[in-house]
Amino acid sequence: MTPVRAFLAILAVYVALGLAYIDVTPYRTSGYLPFQTEGLQKDIGAPDEWQHTNYIRYLVEHRSFPIFNDPKQDFYDHYQSHQPPAYYLLAAPLQAVSGGKIETEKWVLRSFSLLLGCIVLLCIYRGVSAFTDNEWVGALASAFVSLLPMFLALSTAVSNDVALYLVACAAMWRMGAALRDGWTFGNSIGLGLIVGIGILTKTSSLVVLPVAMTAMLAFRGSRANWRHVLAMLLAAAVVSAPWLLRNQQLYGDPVAYRVFQETFKTMPAETLIEANGLWGYWYEAVAIRAIWSWWGIFSYFQITVQPIAIYDTLTILFVLTALGLLSRKWQDASVGEKRMHILNLALLGCVVFVFVRFNSVYYQAQARYLYPAIFAFASVFAFGAFSWATRMPSERQSQANRRMWWIALPMLIALFAVNLYALLNILPSGFELLQINPESFNGN
Questions:
Q1: How far apart are CA 30 and CA 33, in angstroms?
Q2: What is the rounded distance in angstroms from the CA atom of residue 233 to the CA atom of residue 231?
């Protein structure tokens, strides 16, 4: 077995599970969301999928971009209209060939997201390999992500979220390759194009920019010169400037954040802090539920995996595996590995900052807002297992790689089992309940 064949096997399992998630998750199906709002809702499937699909339909029907909070449109149907256009432009031709058939549209658009998820896994595999020159660790990092139930659910929904994760992981791969091979105009412009496309995908991808600057300027002996930095910034600006200028003209804000914040009033953090106190809000409401949703809370934050101890088990397995990284002596790590860990910290810090800032205004403890740092989490898990493996004496690198997979196996088996449990039990029963009027539980 080679690392490439292992990665292809990982992709095959991911695609099989992904197709199952596409099938089991309702598409444009009405129901009730008792933990979020009262009354019958238009959609109970994947978060915001109704609005993302409407954005794509608008592009196909009107051959123009929607305008956020347009008084001519229903706000609920179009509250994602402030989003940048890249994902929707790619998806629009696929929607056009669906012929207006709901079931065809569902499979075509969700399968496109699944394809993007496959490329995310490729970027993680190649990115970790580029930093460390160890393809087996890269394969393990991609295996971990491929089995995350929440990643599977998100990457099989009509949404620009998975495109955002792709941008972040592609940027990390580009940085790893450039630090390994040396900065040139070619790879500097390539990184800038990724950053620019990220801005055209979702404005939260701006977290990649400071990480890119760190990669170009922080490492002695591998610093990019000012021309390369300028080339990267210019490439990003050229790609993203037309959309940012449009937003400035329409909303008085290049990223359209202010107009969204002024309009979007759902679940203000201030109200929940007053009701639960700071500790109750940030620990119990935000931190704990962010951990749960990292593994999987489905629908519109409605369907949890029961019993809750499953979340605890997965978290403990991850932490025990990742702790191996602390046992690894810094001097034993290669130069590339050290750089990867530093950039992972930079990426994670930026993503967590945005997450905390957003939750200080609105309650949105969904871990999908932490998934732009999924490259960092995956590599920490893989290198944790590798670090435990290298503590045992071995004559060859292949022996350490083999032990690494055995150490990671409990986590991978647990994730696979949770996916089967979710697909066969939790999701079918959960979505069925969401289509029942809550009043019926009171005998009405």
A1: 10
A2: 6
How far, in Å, CA of 384 to CA of 253, rounded? 42
**Burial of residue 96, with CB atoms counted within 10 A of its CB: 0-12 exposed, 13-18 middle, 19 or more buried:** middle
Q: How does 5-15 read in b/e, with b if 16+ C-beta sit within 10 Å? A: ebbeebbeebb
Cβ atoms of 382 and 140 within 8 Å: the answer is yes
Closest CA to 33 of 42, 23, 24: 42
The torsion defined by the Cα of 351, 356, 362 and 366, in degrees rounded to 10, comes to 60
CB distance 154 to 368 below 8 Å: yes
What is the three-class DSSP state of 418?
A: helix
Helix (H, G, I), strand (E, B) or coil at 417: helix
Residue type, 9: A
**Which residue, among 82, 90, 95, 351, has the nearest Cα to 243 in the 3D structure?**
82
Alpha-helical segments (H) within 182-334: 185-199, 208-217, 226-251, 257-263, 269-279, 288-295, 309-322
Whether the link from the prior residue into 66 is cis, omega within 30° of 0, is no
Torsion angles phi and psi, residue 172, rounded to 5:
-65, -40
Dist CA 231 CA 229 (whole Å): 5
Domain positions in the chain are 3-437
The DSSP symbol for 222 reads S
- As a whole number of angstroms, the distance between CA 28 and CA 50 comes to 6
Dump pLDDT digits (tens) for 254-296: 998 888 877 776 778 888 898 899 999 999 999 999 999 999 9
The closest of 169, 87, 190, 176 to 120, measured between CA atoms, is 169
Smallest CA-to-CA distance from 207 within 86, 80, 346 is with: 346
Tell me the pTM. 0.95
Q: Strand, coil or helix: what is 362?
A: strand
pLDDT digits (tens, 9 = 90+) for 225-262: 999 999 999 999 999 999 999 999 999 999 988 888 77
Please identify which residue in the block is written with the tokens 């794509």.
Answer: 56
Please give the Cα distance from 178 to 215 (Å, whole number): 9
Distance CA 141, CA 125 (A): 7
Residue with tokens 């403990």: 316
d(CA 274, CA 137): 46
